[in-house]
Amino acid sequence: MSLLRFEDVRQSYGAEEVLRGISFEMDRGDVEVVIGPSGSGKSTMLRCVNRLTEVDAGTIYLDGEAITTPDTDVNDLRRRVGMVFQDFNLFAHRTALGNVTLGLEEVLDYPREEARTEAMAQLERVGLADQADSYPAELSGGQKQRVGIARALAMDPELMLFDEPTSALDPELIGDVLAVMRDLAEEGMTMLCVTHEMGFARSAASTVSFLDGGQVVERGPPARLFESPANERTGEFLERLTSLHGGEQ
Amino acid sequence: MSTEAADEPGEPATARGSVGVELGRRPLFYAVLGPFWAWLVVRWVHDWVLAPELNVTARETFFPTASLVAAGTTLRGAGAPAPVAGLLDWLAGGMDFVALGVEALPQLAAGAWATIVLTVVSILAGLVLAVPLSVARVYGGRAARYPALAVTELIRGTPLLAQLFVLYFGLGLTQYVREVPGVGVAVLPDTAVVVALIGFTINSAAYQSEYIRSALLSVDSGQLTAGRAIGLSKVDAIRHVVLPQGLRFAIPGWSNELVYLIKYSSLASFITVRELFFRAEEIGNATYRFVEVYTVAALFYIALVISASAVMSYVEGRVAIPGLGGKGRR
Ligand SMILES: Nc1ncnc2c1ncn2[C@@H]1O[C@H](COP(=O)(O)OP(=O)(O)O)[C@@H](O)[C@H]1O
Ligand SMILES: [Mg+2]
């Protein structure tokens, strides 16, 4: 059974329909990369999965269970679905370690010491154990984002959502974050990633979706979609992306 | 990326002013404030612990003024020629001035205690009320937002003195207060004090909730989202993520409120609370030397205000977090 399934999901802000019937599914361990122009609804699509945004029609299933129903336990859903933000959103008043322990202590009810141990293990995983006592303002963008990933991983999620995790980063810092994401993918984490890092998509993605105007215009394995896009709009978008980024890394 | 810049809170639009906040950091002032507080504490301990059987007006000052007064009399009676006599007269007047000020000190010390208690208790109790009020304003649904708004505007829109009068004369709160255990004995010697505390607490809660509200609004909205995204309930996310940041942003406004409350607490004299201003007025009425005694009382207020500012600077420094407001650590 698929881990995540969208079934004709629609969402509007006022009169503007942002998601216009999204359907797809991904299996446990899949890495789905979503690409698409700005405003095409990529963020909205991710936010529907953990109910930061409510869908207007259609259903999203997590592990076979509808999660867009009124009686879904939203807090529990969010515990099960980790999210990594474009602009990090680290808790500014807490150290790197404190960012990771908050959910452990307040959501999972870990005792203080155990939360600390677990959080250190997560920071270790993203290569930041030595920055445990730094505040967000004292970290580089790449470090912040890795703390953001550790914070989400600490909740032991079944699915991770990444919303352009590297697009706020200086180019030289992107690599560290992508490396952590690659490791995660190799460990078998199920990941739904909005990213325009085509190198990452090529090497880590099981499937790439091209979203435009609130619809999945084209979907397929990265090699096929990048080399021979079937849809005209996909081709145009990829061309612009390549010229903008100056090719692959 | 944008978080550092976006988090910077503006000066809250509701600030009543920023008097004294700057002064609190100069070492020179500690040289004056140190002895002032040392004397004040010794005075309180002496008057209420060591010699409680005397009433305040009977209390002797620690600094005898007899020689000063005598010197003044001598100068006046010296019979010097005209221009010199004028100068001597003027000197003698200065000595009388100081003498009266010094004689007023024991009573003003007692009044300062009441002023400090009124201020500290009201600001802290006000904070306890202001936090839920401001959270209701910012994050509450209609049912919470509008009542909170109404209460805040009602209190901020009417004079504090009128509020005290309503509590004291209008509602006759003293009757009920007298029933409360502890009132009338040493802890709360005076029912009027309790009424004043209630009035100041409510008033300060309204102002503080405005400071905190604008501080909460300056917390980046992504913070709450991130809190919710790890599974925190809205209340928990506000409590553990938004409030710790918002309350830090509110410290400068809060310091102003503290400074204002010190001065506004003098309004309690209108409902017979024997705080600093009341004592000064009492002495003035008895001696007709209003200028002298009000000058000394003003010095007391200035000392209290600067001390409060110094304490708040210290607190602000202690809770400062890199990148999150605070002084010099941005
Ligand atoms: N909170 C919101 N209120 C109103 N419109 C929104 C909101 N969030 C997004 N939108 C609109 O929805 C559309 C899709 O936004 P988004 O999902 O953020 O796109 P993307 O992430 O692909 O750039 C955009 O046109 C945007 O203006
Ligand atoms: Mg987006």
TrEMBL record, chain A:
Q: GO molecular function: any one? A: ABC-type amino acid transporter activity
Q: Which domain of life is it from?
A: Archaea
Q: Which Pfam families match?
A: ABC_tran (PF00005)
Known Gene3D superfamilies for this protein? P-loop containing nucleotide triphosphate hydrolases
Provide the membrane topology annotation.
Answer: Peripheral membrane protein
Signal sequence coordinates: none
**Sorted alphabetically, which PROSITE patterns does this protein's record hold?**
ABC_TRANSPORTER_1 (PS00211), ABC_TRANSPORTER_2 (PS50893)
GO cellular component terms listed in the entry, alphabetical order? plasma membrane
Entry keywords, A to Z: Amino-acid transport, ATP-binding, Cell membrane, Membrane, Nucleotide-binding, Transport
Where does this polypeptide localize?
Cell membrane
Provide the family line.
Answer: Belongs to the ABC transporter superfamily.
Q: What is the protein name stated in its UniProt record? A: Glutamine ABC transporter ATP-binding protein
Ranked from the top, the taxonomy reads: Archaea, Methanobacteriati, Methanobacteriota, Stenosarchaea group, Halobacteria
The protein's gene is named glnQ
